[in-house]
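Hi R.,

As promised on Friday, here is the backbone we talked about, encoded as structure tokens. Could you run it through your design pipeline when you get a chance and send me back a sequence?
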């Protein structure tokens, strides 16, 4: 075998390998470029890497922001759950009060809402409807008559993916729906 032929064949194999690696690199660069928002399939590697770095920093900041927002919304998990109770209470001496008593418990992605109010037409369905408007999926609910005109509604719900629920806001929204229903 001619030594110049062996050298040429070796060089040709190295060139083919380099071309394959270059094609693979370009495919990966194009794929990275396509992942970036507002980016066209650019092959300027410096620009793609700069954009990718900026986008990763943006995503990290967004994650931090959402984590802070989630912590402030449902609170730090001291044990296994965070519990927020309504301040709307009814004492025995205030039995004519029309304000409902509402308790909201939030634990991770689970929510329990317990409502004691005057029994009015359609109040159960309006309450369930409002819960579903609040980015919650109702898992189960039960109702009980309490006394002559009182109604107790207990709702177990799951917080929908990506939703942020504030227990006080949920309680206030539920109270408004119930009070509106009681006026009708």
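Update: got your reply. Pasting your designed sequence below so it's all in one thread:
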């Amino acid at each position: 075998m001619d030594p110049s032929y062996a050298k040429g064949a070796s060089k040709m194999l190295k060139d083919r390998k380099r071309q394959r690696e270059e094609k693979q690199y370009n495919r990966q660069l194009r794929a990275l470029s396509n992942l970036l928002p507002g980016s066209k399939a650019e092959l300027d590697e410096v620009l793609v890497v700069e954009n990718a770095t900026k986008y990763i920093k943006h995503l990290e900041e967004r994650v931090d922001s959402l984590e802070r927002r989630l912590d402030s919304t449902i609170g730090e998990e001291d044990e296994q759950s965070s519990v927020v109770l309504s301040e709307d209470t009814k004492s025995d001496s205030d039995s004519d009060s029309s304000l409902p008593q509402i308790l909201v418990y939030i634990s991770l992605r689970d929510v329990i809402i317990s409502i004691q109010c005057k029994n009015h037409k359609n109040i159960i369905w309006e309450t369930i409807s409002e819960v579903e408007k609040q980015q919650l999926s109702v898992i189960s609910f039960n109702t009980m008559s309490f006394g002559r005109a009182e109604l107790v509604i207990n709702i177990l719900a799951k917080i929908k993916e990506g939703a942020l629920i504030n227990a006080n806001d949920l309680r206030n929204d539920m109270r408004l729906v119930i009070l509106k229903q009681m006026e009708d």
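One thing I noticed while checking it: The domain at 82-183 is CATH 3.30.70.260 (Alpha-Beta Plaits).

Thanks again,
M.
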